[in-house]
Amino acid sequence: MPEKRVKKVVLAYSGGLDTSIILKWLQTTYACEVVTFTADLGQGEELEPARKKAQLLGIKDENIFIEDLREEFVRDYVFPMFRANAQYEGLYLLGTSIARPLIAKKQIEIAEKVGADAVAHGATGKGNDQVRFELTYYALKPDVTVIAPWREWDLTSRTKLIEFAELHQIPIAKDKRGEAPFSVDANLLHASSEGKVLEDPSEEVPDYVYSRTLDPEEAPDQPTYITIDFERGDPVAIDGKTLSPAALLARLNELGRANGIGRLDLVENRFVGMKSRGMYETPGGTILLAAHRGIESITLDRGAAHLKDELMPRYAELIYNGFWFSPEREMLQAAIDKSQEMVSGRVRLKLYKGGVHVVGRESPYSLYDKELVTFEEGAVAYDHRDAEGFIKLNALRLRTLAQRKRKLAGT
Question: 199 to each of 95, 203, 266, 310, how far by Cα in Å?
Fold first, then answer.
């Protein structure tokens, strides 16, 4: 018998083979009532089969929850993150990381609603997702019981998983009987692939792994030009057409896909301590990052812009490590959001064969002053002679150091 005594558990349930096995394992191991929660984050899969699979495994209709979270995901998680230009280790746009706190938050909300005393997830004991799920659980419901089957059961091989599924009459698709060549996680922001054929970082990612982007070499020979309008740091329109957050990101994904934009082959440092090689496709997010930096370049003061860039790695690391609901992330978010008050305007971009190029930017709050930077003579509030004193003041310590070196060299 398990050490934990559980009456009712809310399971993050995809409807796939692994979480279906987990569902039955919870029933047989804990003899508890199971509630399933399936989130639509724009992964591009039909979710009704998850309902039917749960029903087949004996879950009552009132214990099956399926929610469309696409708008909430983009509005309340993706957009706030992009206000910070967040990239983990300078490259990764955090597509998987940012989805986990929302799923976990909804699990806790459902647990409160149905009176469940436990939650469960299907993350393995080697990855970051177990941390992200559980830190959120405990932040929102500190007394909750957490069940992580991959850390508890003895189903340690694909063969044992299949045997368990067959024993309990869990349907197994033909393509699920063998070892998958790689695993995929997807949502409206990105698709990530890792494992098996990707485990050797010296080998190029096979073409068949890519699902969200056209090969840049096969992309159109003519560039695509678009505009993105921003209000207070968030994108609101493409080519002058106002769109909801989820619809806007979906449209950017279409544009990015067609132009081969957003591929990333990355070896990253997992929070749990190991290095991992993954392939990420973030077409719309890659365009959005370039556009946001473009509008910030004319609307943010130098000091604010540079401070943001100093804060960004810490902010990105907090999201990657699962601390979305931490006070330090919320503190940083408040500072970031403050910086975005005047980040409004329009950016023009050129999309071409895997590249995103900012080719124009304008804003009613622009700090760019053509008269100040022009080489032409004019009545501007800048006197070239002022630069001499500015340079000498900044050179004072350098001159002092040089004089000391001379003295030491002469002794």
Answer: 20, 9, 11, 32
Residue-wise pLDDT for 202-234, tens only, equals 999 999 999 999 999 999 999 999 999 999 999
Please state which of the ranges 91-95, 152-156, 330-334, 395-399 shows the lowest mean pLDDT.
152-156
* Claim to verify: residue 159 and residue 225 sit in the same structural domain: no
The three state secondary structure string of 141-199 is CCCCEEECHHHHCCCCCHHHHHHHHHHCCCCCCHHHCCCCCCEEEECCCCEEEECHHHC
Choosing from 70, 83, 129, 193, the catalytic residue is: 129
Taking the whole predicted model, whether its pTM rises above 0.90 is answered as yes
Give residue 72's domain range: 8-80+96-179
212 is catalytic: no
Do 145 and 290 lie in one domain? The reply is no
Active site residue 18: yes
Whether residues 129 and 59 share a domain: the answer is yes
Per-residue burial over 346-367, b = 16 or more CB atoms within 10 Å of its CB, e = otherwise: bbbbebbbbbbebeebebeebe
Active-site residue 129, yes or no? Answer: yes
Choose the catalytic residue: 51, 70, 83, 100. Answer: 100
